[in-house]
Amino acid sequence: MRLFAPVLSIAMLLAAPAAAQSTDEAEKLAGEGISKMLQALDLLLKTVPQYGAPEMQPNGDIIIRRLHPEDQPDATPQEEDDEPGDGTET
């Protein structure tokens, strides 16, 4: 029983650096994960169209303008012709 206390003390001393290293690695991985999540959120906010306040025209029309229309892709998709032809439909 007298041998148990010194062995336990040595085991605890040897385990302390391993636990600290594990904690440091966990903190590093958590920091990297949070950084990647913030980058993804930033990219999401940049890709979602942003709109200004609605404007009411005298005739009753309501206009909601995009704040940065030059950043948005073309709203009218071009039709692709699957079959070659002269452009007439049958």
Report the span from N to C terminus.
98 Å
Largest sheet: 2 strands, antiparallel
Q: Low-confidence spans: pLDDT under 50, at least 5 residues? A: none
Assembly type? single chain
Description:
With 90 residues, the chain is mainly alpha-helical. It has one helix spanning 4-47; strands at residues 55-56, 62-63. It has a domain at 9-39. The chain contains one helix and two strands; from the N terminus they run αββ. It has a two-stranded antiparallel sheet. Strand 1 and strand 2 (62-63) form a beta hairpin.
Summary of the model, kept short:
Keywords: Signal. This protein is mainly alpha-helical.
SSE layout and pairing:
Layout: H1 4-47, E1 55-56, E2 62-63
Antiparallel strand pairs: 1-2
What descriptive keywords fit this protein?
90 residues; mainly alpha; two-stranded antiparallel ribbon; 4% strand; rod-shaped; AAA+ family ATPase
